[in-house]
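Re: that chain you flagged

S.,

Sorry for the slow reply, it's been a week of failed gels. I finally had a moment to sit down with the sequence you sent. For the record, here it is as I used it:
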Amino acid sequence: HILFSLKCSQIPSGENVRPLGTTHIIKAEPVDESSVKKMILTFEKRSYKNQELRIKFPDNPEKFMESELDLNDIIQEMHVIATMPDLYHLLVELNAVHSLLGLLTYSPKPDPHVAIAVVDLLQELTDIDTLHESEEGAEVLIDALLEGQVVALLVQNMERLDEQVKEEADGIYNTLAITENMAEFRPGLCTEAAQQGLMQWLLKRIKAKMPFDANKLYCSEILAILLQNNDNTRELLGEMDGIDVLLQQLSVFKRHNPSTAEEQEMMENLFDGLCSCLMLPTNRDRFLRGEGLQLMNLMLREKKMSRTSALKVLDHGMIGPEGADNCHKFVDILGLRTIFPLFMKTPKKMKKTGASEKEHEEHVCSIIASMLRNLKSQQRSRLLNKFTENDCEKVDRLMELHFKYLEAVQQADKRIEGEKHEMVRQGEILDDSMEDEFYLRRLDAGLFVLQLICYIMVEISNSGISQLQQRVHQILNLRGGSVKVVRHIMREYAESIGDGKSDEFKEAERKRIMDLVDNF
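Prediction finished late last night. Pasting the structure tokens below so you have them in one place:
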């Protein structure tokens, strides 16, 4: 285990020098509370001694070399504490956490080696499986780290590491692992971590002109984690021009597929991050101004691997009343010519990207539904005209999808009814949470897509274009469908609408949908 790769010129000649890359061999003692205490006290002493010598002889490495090797030895030994998370409280009580964090930015002339040794230790101490072994020990450790501004210190430390040096590149990887471990154990700290410089550092590293590597992949993963279900971090990314950074990084994949599985994973992470950001209304405008719609539209036309994710991004960008500007712009850039061929025929080549037929049809139907909801005047007419083209072939396809998903949902309903019957027979109570679970299962089986399809049906039937209304009803009658079923589906949809929206909006939207249904 080579400890340091120090420059030869720094190695003093003479006695009392231990060869680099060796550690004192220490007889393994049984690890218990008293041996951990002893270890921590040794660490404190050696840390203090090294600090003292570094301050005294800042330009004379041979004076503090020996103490540095001693300090490194004890940090290596402390890895054993990671096997006993129930003793983590000792690290806090004996002030070791504070001292370890001090070593991340320590000394007038920072040497990355000790800081990297500390990062390796913290990475092992915060290993997610270890944290779950002793929730109590984990809580105490994480609290102490956060109190010591751990993320800010880790970011400062990464700023001065040189990724051309393998050991330092590994140090960055392990630093990212610490942030991932902590975020998984306590998701609430994502906002704080992002604000302590992590978001800025990640964006800078993602757009750095460096060859793709494991660290860039990991950065994309941490970024996606920070943005998950978190409006604060989404806002922060928007303010830092992060939407532009994501679009620039993704634009590479408009005409080229990722060259490895790892690069594909990074692409998906960046797309996921972008979708998360678009949940925040203010970012929709940044996406519009950054020409995100044009990029996604091109990706849909190019038929590369990025197509599936581009569709998902468009769906996120156009949904709800906040998506109105994006809907209008999409029609202006001739997006209808791109989206309708994907509506008419689900691509066969989706297996590579791991997307399902249902997912594809859901996103396309959601985009069309959003446009029907949001478009006004001339753009709305252009959309409705699409449905009349070629003897209403788009309506025929819509009805084909209607019966496909209706059947899937009816089968799921049958299964669920059987389960409910069985539960009642066994004397189990069907509470609200069970009903919610059943509803989610129905949505997953295809009810959500069916709701979107029915919404499109009632919208185009209310458009004032009689041939659309006639065609919808003609096919319904022909295939033994029923207006009553469509109305029932739409009522259920109206009931569930607008989670997270104001009561005022919910009410208005429900009324709008029910008016459409009554006229159907």
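What I noticed first: The longest helix spans residues 377-425.

Talk soon,
D.
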